[in-house]
Amino acid sequence: MKWILFVTLFASSTVFAQQQAQQRNDNTVVATVGSKRITLGEFNKKYNEVASQVLVNPPDKKTFLEELVRFEVGVQEARKRGVEKDPVFQERVNQELYKVFLEKELGNKIENNTITDGEMRAWYAQNPQIRLSDILIEVKPGATAAQRAEARKRAEDILKEVRSSKRSFEELVRLYSDDITTKNLGGDVGWQSKTSLVPAYYNAVIGLKNGEISSNLVETAFGYHIVKMTGRRSYEEAPKREIRMAVFDVKRKAVFDAFFNQIKKNYQINVNSSLVD
């Protein structure tokens, strides 16, 4: 028993001695920049973090040490020159402050959000994936009111022809559409979802039946659209990962909205949204 006790005490003292030696090594100063001391422990921690993230050709330790020195020189020189008072710096600080605040307050709530198949089905029932063909009458960026009115008049005339013509929609696309990407595809824009289309566009066409052509023009920043519904996917056919992400975004927004609606009560806030119409 005494022998076992001796071995145990010897092993414990050896581990303790090793820990003390490691601590001394960690506290060894590998570089000094002004009043800043960079210890071996600090260096190893930062180097290991970088090396674990860089899969190909991580920096050698001497090069990385030089980078740490340069970083500290830059930080100290920036403070000497008053960069902390620069509006650009202050804006970046505010952005990081906001991000860290949200991560701290809402990170766990968002990460722990569970998404059920029932929630996915309910969301998809209101927001199905659809396939469309489109005639675009383009309005160039920066167009004047007169140019936009001219484009609209042209679009209205084409819409009348589309709805009364015996020609196929695909043929009329080739005749009139300004979208060079889909012009030779009969206007086919492929399978689209609420997350991939401009909201105004999706909301304007979602009520169309398969094979139906929009009775009104659909206006977007790109111009005026005449749209034909060509397909609608069932939930079983739809990409579940995309649906899951959409539901996740909805639930994340709900968490954000509830949080800010609560804390905004602590502030006097006046908003004149009419000025940004």
From TrEMBL:
Keywords: Isomerase, Rotamase, Signal. It is an enzyme of class 5 (isomerase). It catalyses: [protein]-peptidylproline (omega=180) = [protein]-peptidylproline (omega=0). Residues 127-231 form the PpiC domain. It holds the Pfam family Rotamase. One of its GO terms (molecular function) is peptidyl-prolyl cis-trans isomerase activity. This is peptidylprolyl isomerase.
